[in-house]
Structure formats: structure tokens, C-alpha cells
Amino acid sequence: MSLRLSGSREQGVAMGMLAGVESRSLTKEPTRERQMETEKSQQGAIEESGNFRITFLPDDKTVEVQRGTTLMEAAQKAGVHINNLCGGEGVCGRCRVRISDGRVQADKHSISLLSKEEIAQGYALACQTRVNRDMEVLIPAESRLEEAQILMHEMPFQYGPPEKIRVAKVPSDPMTLFDPLVQKVHLKLPEPSLSDNMPDIERVIRELRKKTDQHDFEVSLCCLQGLAAKLRDHDWEVTVTIARRGDHWRILQVEPMDTSERAYGVAVDVGTTTIVAQLVDLKSGHVLGVEGSHNLQARYGEDVISRMIYACSREKGLNSLHQSVIRNINQLISGLPGDRGIALEDILAVVAAGNTTMSHLLLSLIPCSIRLDPYVPTATFYPQVPARELGIRINAEGILQTIPCVASYVGGDIVAGILACGIADKPRTSALIDVGTNGEIAIGNNDWMVCCSASAGPAFEGGGITHGMRATRGAIEQVIIEDGKVSYKVIGKGKPRGICGSGLIDSVYELVRNGIIGKEGRFNPSTRQERLREKDGRIEFVVARAGETETGEDIVLTESDISHLIRSKGAVFAAMKSLLDYVGLKFTDMDTLFVAGGFGNFLNIPKAIGIGLLPDMELERIRFVGNSSLMGARMALLSTHALERAMHIARGTTNIELSNYQPFMDEYIAAMFLPHTDNRLFPSVNY
Amino acid sequence: MSLRLSGSREQGVAMGMLAGVESRSLTKEPTRERQMETEKSQQGAIEESGNFRITFLPDDKTVEVQRGTTLMEAAQKAGVHINNLCGGEGVCGRCRVRISDGRVQADKHSISLLSKEEIAQGYALACQTRVNRDMEVLIPAESRLEEAQILMHEMPFQYGPPEKIRVAKVPSDPMTLFDPLVQKVHLKLPEPSLSDNMPDIERVIRELRKKTDQHDFEVSLCCLQGLAAKLRDHDWEVTVTIARRGDHWRILQVEPMDTSERAYGVAVDVGTTTIVAQLVDLKSGHVLGVEGSHNLQARYGEDVISRMIYACSREKGLNSLHQSVIRNINQLISGLPGDRGIALEDILAVVAAGNTTMSHLLLSLIPCSIRLDPYVPTATFYPQVPARELGIRINAEGILQTIPCVASYVGGDIVAGILACGIADKPRTSALIDVGTNGEIAIGNNDWMVCCSASAGPAFEGGGITHGMRATRGAIEQVIIEDGKVSYKVIGKGKPRGICGSGLIDSVYELVRNGIIGKEGRFNPSTRQERLREKDGRIEFVVARAGETETGEDIVLTESDISHLIRSKGAVFAAMKSLLDYVGLKFTDMDTLFVAGGFGNFLNIPKAIGIGLLPDMELERIRFVGNSSLMGARMALLSTHALERAMHIARGTTNIELSNYQPFMDEYIAAMFLPHTDNRLFPSVNY
Question: What is the pTM of this model?
Fold first, then answer.
């Protein structure tokens, strides 16, 4: 077969993103079925049945798969993670692996996404390469995730000694509202007599009323079954677990004796990229532990769009994604008790916040219409359900409460964020901006709230950038260029593997400040800079030289990378500007701008202003709040009032659909400049 | 072994009722397990493993069972019914069978309950006789039930052409309140657009609001799952099933297209003796069919006390009783559609009314404390549950609503009866009296309601009476004695097998009217009556001679029988009188007295007054209403307002516990006379 060497990687990505994604056939499915059958068969028959051994390095994990299986599928079977942004469609080029014997049948996808040299060295796309012999496969650093690093660096603020629920940066103190969503109430009932012979359950409720000051309790059949024996076998001493649902309390379970000390809950931020779970003591409000991991759904596509496509184009696609996030949450929950002597049955509630797509996948709702005009989700308010109904392993009667969403692209994570930042509690107007693949923005106060979402592209999370990566170990997170010298800081302090969002913002800021690029984002031809070079007809800026990097390659920024970033920051800024204009306000009218997102931990706010991502406000009015979604979920777990407020926020927030809103288009074009075409918006920025 | 022949049958029954019931050991259980194992084994091994063939006559059904199995258990296995009042405790003597070869090992129970001649003829108690060889067993007429007869004779008023819901005898017309508990609403939704892109479920609810005039709808997760596809695959045309629960409506299911014509419900009267189910069209309110059968729980004991003992003294006893009533209901429901082309999934709701014990067994709630001082049930209000949760086979999302009870011995059947008779709707005071093993009485109006229950004993249903039987084929239901001649009417017009409640009332009335017994219930020694005879030292009145009867034995009434009836009628009358006194009213203050119960169809009201069972009121103010429980259940199915009223009745009814209420004791003693010691209460009765 002849190799057609044409097209840059960027062009390939762009082409792939524009076409081919949906036309992909489902030919993998039968292969997978065959593979499963084979797993059941005896090992002795391997050679005859066409099975091969695939060893993945550097983990040195070996797996046996049938001929025709893709290397991506083999890696999934081996439990080895390979990056993947497009859901195995062969268009993102993130699953680059190297076959040790170099013999690769390059397919049309690999050809457009890999260079001639790479193909010669045995590089291939794992999702497009099918097994036809025993293979040894090296997963290069940039295609790997190293999970243990993630949580430490992305959410350091979650650690520390147990704390009372408190969002320190917010004036309103939720501590005054401590009233957990699920509570255990210990009761000693008076024994019945002829003059006091009400039914057992009413005797229970009478004492509950005295202890809780609540009047009505809903009872399910399972609480009634066996109740008579529980009361009589244990001297009328029981512990009742109650949960708030809507405007009343439900009795979840009645246990003999006093178990009221064993009452725990879990708050979960179901992010597209990472899932973080926090164990909370429902008696004290203390946070006892936190666990995080990559969202295992990444194997089906790294962003919400790829996952929706996966869910909607394959039979059982939705179920795969749903089961994946449930497994994910179960793994996190099972790790949370640690050696604290807390059993899973002591965990009574899970409160989850996620964007609208994640919420749909969590609850196994069809997400397909979310991504299609006119962007309609199945629901934005979700019923409180028994956790076991979804396979979440906590107490058999425990509940799952999902934070409500506003619209298809403004989810429960934003609602939780608004809650956590207290924006809806203050008379003065503030804003929350959460930057990921989509930039979501909410502006409002205790009277009104508007929000919108702009497709920012994946640049801030490292997507679509030549050496972009997420804020994990090996990512360059800070960059300074001074007198032609580049210095940078790497997450985990080892050799760099790529650049994450905050490093990218810093780099572009430094490049324009040093005159290396112009305000339109192009390399300045008059500048002599030894780090500027031409390769394959493109100009690149070398941030880290091959000798310094883990991959042994230069880490570079191209004009295309810079252009991606400008488009992303432009979309976010334009959205914020449009939203303010919509309500007739200016940036100076905002009391505080809360910034959340996965850039990394060291978002340099002045530099973010410098490139025109954030508005030119006094620095003390801009606050980086990290994972405000998790914070909001925890608040809803610990306070029925906070949950009610979340409902109120979700109901009362007006979503402005930007996709055909002309002022946004105009603002977007005006923002395609560093920092902006309108200098008056950034008076403090002087390059 | 020696046979001790001592004690009359009555004494035996009385002794058995006082003692021995609870001390019975659980030795049968292992036998039953062994039996089940054997059922699985090959037939060839029968002789070796000690199995025997038992043939039951007259049905000629043969079954193989292991040595040691009781004949009662063998009959259950063969699907042959043998009467049984005590739950297999060997104390009621109702399971008398005859072993054809006459070889019986008489045990202590049989000895006290059977006469010397009967034992010699091969009679034995089926529950006490263990298999030790192949046997041929005749079940005599009085120990058999013939199911097909029951419904026809007990509830003739349920038949007739389809009718709108209506309780003709009641002033308030529930027709004006037609608003079924479960409804199907057909919706054509406008397609979403960018200017109208609310979530799918809210689009559904918006149209629901327009069609139903209801505002809030609760949604369960399963309705959301798959919703997006249902809407988009069927041009936004769906049918939504909604159910009323408490103060709001729930969405049970969303089906594609228009299925609104297929909406049916079932009303069930879960009686201790019989279970009757009615199929109702929820679109029109028409009754489409009715099915009834004996309560299969009878194999575990014929009255509620025996069943509670069974449920509480054996492992899985409750489950056996629960499964039995569920099987019962499923059988009835499966027969209801007939050839009407109605599928079980078109049945959306079951509304069940039963006494408190039956309600507990239906819902698998522990009933044990109901029968023990201070008579505490688990619950009197029951949650609406998915029918599938209890194994009731209707639509997968269909519901079971159980009519609430008042107290341990005033159940949902009485609440449904009060509802059906409209007692709680009228300003004038009326009463409902339901006579069974317990006599339940409710008195009240639209302002207040009191009720009580008196242990009447089983006499009105034929229990504890030498030749007593229920109102089924072969029962003498009417008796007239004129000039020393006895004429009687038999249910089914064949030869008599015994006497049912109404026949007993007639007989005692006729005996006292003819001076054959005195007003204290003893045979008048001065009377010469050829039908009076002495046997085993007891005086008996022969109602039907051996030559006329199906059993070939005389059907007689003894002084003990008459005494039983007087105690029963005395308890009912005393309860009614005490309750009236409690509220400061007289019989003349009652507008109407509704009488329900299983006496038979021809309760002769003047004669019931004559013996002092019913008060001496104008006849037109006493109405025999038959199965008012079923009627009330149907009303609750067809009207959420009626169900609400049932809740209101159950909540607002004051239960007077008679068991230690001194005025009742005094009234009871005063009522031990025909008609009463106080003649002024029965001015119209002149014997």
C-alpha cells in the first residue's frame, strides 16, 4: 500500500472535527462480541482461534485479544489508559502509540495525523490499528494519563484537616443553615397500652415530630415491613433515617437501637474530565476525605460532544457510558472510608453535580438532543432516586440527589458553583465563569440571574494544541520570557511533557509582551529570536527543547496553537460581554468575578487579563475558586436550605442561547485580538 | 393404643379454643421440606424413598407424598380444599375426613373432636393424620367448599349490565366526582425550536397542565429514561399515565402515540373468606366484569386469628399468607379481561379494601400484635406502591392503593363501606354494621364518626355450630316452623348439608316464636315436639332429617348452638348499643342502619330484629347492602375525591376499644336474652 503523506496534524484534526465523525460505521461491535466469547474459551485454544498477545509498555501489561481487535480496545481490556479525544473516531490523534517492531499498516487516519518520520518509527493511532500478530506497544508519555497526580494538583484546596462546611470566600455563611439532606434520629418510644394503642408507624412519627419539629413524613412500604418486630425486639428503641424530598421528609429506614452516630454522605463533582468525591460526616458537617480520578468515560471520548456521539450512534452506547460513571463513583466511594471504620451502609446519601450531559449519563437519560439544534435536554430537574436503583453502592435505602441544571449547556456544576460562591444570596451583582471546553458564564444577584455558554474549544484543557495537555504531571503550567530567555515551571517538577491551559495563557501573554507575536497572534517577522524556527513550512516557538523534555521532542507553540487560544479566550470574553450587555451592565458593575475551571492551579490572573480572557478589573475582585461544583454539592448535602436554593437558582436563571445571537457574533470578532480590538476595555494592559 | 372416649364435640372445640393453640410445635416444617425435595426426585424411586399415593374423593385426585405428611398437606399439594378453621392446630374439627379402609390411628385431637362411632367408621382430622401407607380419603360434604357457588350467591348485586359508578341507595351521587385515581392523557406536543427549547419533560408537563388543570406533577426516573426517543420517534405524540398520590399527581409512564382508550382498573374486596375483584373501565366508569373466589389463605386457617397465629408462629408463615393472597388476586385479575381484548398491561391500578389483618397480609406487614392486647397494627394508612413491588401482575408501572383502616379490628373494608353508604356525607346520623366473626359497627354523619368491633364469634358464618356452614350450596338459608312443621330453603336447591347464618337466625326466631325454646334460649321441657330428641345426654332440635340431607345425617340445633348464636347476636347488639350510648344517642336517632355481612342473601330483617340482633327500627330504615367494601373500593378507584374521603373517614373515626369498656360488658349481659332483657327496646317484638 502506498503512503500518502499530506496535511499537517492541525489540518488533520480540523478536518476530522468537521467531517467523518458521524459517518463512522459500527464495524467494531461484532469484533468486540467475538472477543468476549473468546474470553470465555479455554486458553489452550488461543493460537488456533487467532488470538494474540499484546504487551503495553511502560506498564508491562499483557492481554490476549482476537485478530482484528484495535489496540485501543486491547488497552481497555488490559486496563491501560490511552488518551482519546474523539471517541475512537480516528480524528483527534491523541492515541498515538509506537509499535516496537515498527511494522505498521498505516491507515488513512494515521497518515493524515502522523508525520512521515513518525510512521517510519512505528507510530500509529491505537484506535485505528488492528491486531494481526503478537505486539509490543509503547504508550508515549503524551498519550498517557497518570492518575495519581491529578487530584493533588487540581484540587489542593480539598485537602487539609476536617472542616465544617464553609465557603470562606462567600459573605453568607451556610453554617447557619446546617440541616443535612439525610438525617438519623434516635428515638425511644413509649410502649403501647390500651389507652395509647396507635399503629406502630404513627408512634414512630409522633416521636419524630417531637425530635425534628417537622410535621409530615412520607413512609415507604419497605419501612413498614418488619417494623413491628424491630420495635418489639429492641425495647422500642430505634433510629430512623429521614431524607428531604421536595417539600416533605421521607422515612428511608428504621433500624433497631441507636445507630445515629453512623451517618455519612458523599458529595460528587461529576466532571467531564475528572470525578471527585468527598466523604462528609452528616452529624458534624466535617469533611473526612476526598478521592478523585479521571472520568473513566474518557475511553469513549474525551469531551461531552464525543460522548454524546458515542452514546447515540451505538447500540448500548448510553449504557456503556452510564455504567462507566457509576463504576467510577463506586470506586471513589469505596476508597473514601479508608481505615475510619465507616461501612458503605453508613453512607446514606450522594449529592452529585455535573454538567447537563454528565447528569444525563449519570441517570441514564438519552443525551442525544442536547448537542443538536435546538439543544433540548430530557430534563433539567432530576428526581431524587434510591442510589441502588442506579447501582450506586451505599446503604440499601440511601439516595442520590442530582443538582438541577439550567439548560443543555449550563449544568448542575454551574448551579452548584453559583450556590457555592453565594452569588444568588447577595444584592450586589457578581459573576461566575467556568472555563473548560465550554465556557459557562452566570451573572446575577439575589434578584435575578442570567447565564450562557460559549463553545470555547478544548484549548484551555490542552486540546487542539500541538503539545497541549491537561494540568497533570509533566505539564508546563507557568512560563516567563525575559530577554529572550524562557523559564517555565512543570507540574510534579519532572521533565515537561506538554503545556496545560495556564502555561498556554502565560506563553501567549509573554510572546506578545516580548513582541515575538503581534496583537493579532502572528509571529512578528522582524523579530530575531533563536527559539523561533520553521518546520514543515510552519513557524514554531520552542518553549522547551528536546533535550529538556520527557518525550525527547521539542515542545513548541505554532501560530495555529496561538490562534486556537485566541478563539477560545475570545469566545469566553465575548460571551461575558454579551451577557453583561444583555442585562445593561458594564464590567465595572460586577462586585466579584469568580473563576472556576481546569486550567491548572496557577492561573495567573494578570496574564489572563493581559490576553483578554478575563476583563480588566481590580485584581482583588477576581477570585479563582477551583472546584466550586464540588463545594456546592457538599453544601446541598449538608443543608436542605442550600438544596432548595440550588433548585431556586436553576429555576430562576435565564439562559441566553448564544448560537444565533448576533451581538455575540460581533463581540466574538471584536475579541479576536490581544487583548481586544477595543483598547478602552483593557486600560491597564500595556505590552 | 387405647382410645379414650370422652368429651362432647363442643367441649372439644371450646377447650381447643382456650388452650393448645400457641403451644403447638413446628415439627411439620422439616417434613414439608423433605416433601419438596422428593418432588424433584425421579418417580422410579418412589417406593424406596417411602412415598405413598393418596387419592382424594369425590374429586378423585391422587398425589404422591412422603411418609409423615399430614392429609391436610397432601390435600394442599393435590389442590383439593379441606375446610379448616384453626390453621391446622387440630382444635376446630372442621377438617373431618373419612379414610376408606377405616384404619386410623386416632390421636388426642381426633378423640376429643370425633364420636366413638365416627372413629370406628374411619373418620379422622386431616390436619392430624399422617400418611403411613397408600390411602383413599373421602372428604365429606361438610368439609368441602364448592367455590363456583360462592360468588353467585353472595354478591348477586355485582352483576348486571355495565353500570356507571353509582351507589343508588346513597343521597350523594359520586358520579359528579368522576375523576379516576389513574388516568391516561393523550398529548400532541409542539416540536421544540430555539425559541421554545424547554427540556422534554417540561414540554410534556406543560401540555399535561393544559389538559388536566393540574399544576404539579411528580416524575420518576424511569419516565425520564427513554423519553427523548419516544417523543422524537413518534412525532411528539404520546400518552401519559398519571396517578394521584396524596396531594399531587405522579407521572407513571409515557407511551408513544395514543393509547388513552386502554385504561382499566381493578377494585378488590380482600375478605377473610372470599376475595372479589371487579374490572372497571377508567374512561367510562363502567364495570366490565367481576370474579370471586375463596381466599386461598383458608388453608392456613379460616379466620383472621388463626391466620395471625400461622403467620407469627412459623418461619416464613407471613410470607406464605402474603404470597397466597397475591396469587389469589393475580388469578382473579387474569380471569377478568375474559374475551374483551384487554391486556394485563392495560390495567393501571388496583384498589384493595380489607380488614386490618388482611391489609397487613396483602402488604406483607407483620400482623402479630394486632391480636394481642393492646391490639396495635403496624399501620392503618398504607403507601401507594407499584403493584409489581408486591408481584401483582398488571401494567409494569401500575399501582396498588390500599384503603386505610381505623384500628386493629376496624379495617379498610369498614372504611370503604362507610364511603359506599355515604354515611360520612350526610348531616343525619346513620350506622353501618358488618357482621362476621367480628361485628364491626360505625355510627356517624358528615361531622363525626365512632366505631367499634366486638368479637361475635363465628356463629353467623356457621362456625362453632354443630351443623353450621357458610352461605354456599347446600346451606339451609331460610327456615319456617308452623304448627310443628318445619319448612326450609336450601342454597342451590339440592339437599341440605348444614345451616348458614341466615338459616340459623330464622331457626332460633322460629323456635322461640313457637315456644320450643324459652327467651333465655333453653328448650322448653313442657313443649311436646316430635323434632326434639335427646342424644348423648343433650337435647337437639332436628331441622332436617337424615333422609333429606346430603350427608345422610340429621341436621340439628343443640342448646349449645342456640347459646352460641345468642352470645354472637348479644355481642353485636351490645356493641351497637354501647356505641350509641357513648355518643349520647338512641336507636331512634339513627336515620338509616346499613347491614353488611356474610349471613347469606336472604337475611330476614324482621327475624333478625326478633332475636335481638338488629335494633327494633322501622324496616324501611334498615338496608342490607351486601359487599359495601367492594363498592367503596370501586368508588376510590373511580374518584380521587372518594379516595380522599376514605382517608378522611379513616383519620376522623374514633375507635372505641370495647375489650375493657365496662358499659359494653353490662350491655352484653343484658342482651343474653331473646330478644333482650329490656323489652322496651323491642316494642314490636311479640312472640
Answer: 0.77
